[in-house]
Amino acid sequence: MTKFRVAAVAVVSAILASDGASAQRAADTMVMAVGAPITSLDPHFHQLSPNNAIADTIFDTLVHTDAQARSVPG
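User: That's the sequence. What structure does it adopt?
Assistant: Structure tokens below.
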């Protein structure tokens, strides 16, 4: 267990000592998991669940649905 702690401290120290560029790249990157491969980023090409999940994060809609299932402006 001591070797594990030493290795963990070494890894954390290396991360903290690294330059801010890698932290900035990580802040500019979004990772999203979906259940199937994305076939298109065009929201009008295929209406598949993974495509719609990605499109919802990229594009805004004109109409949203509120908690009472009413249409409200986007």
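The longest helix spans residues 2-17.
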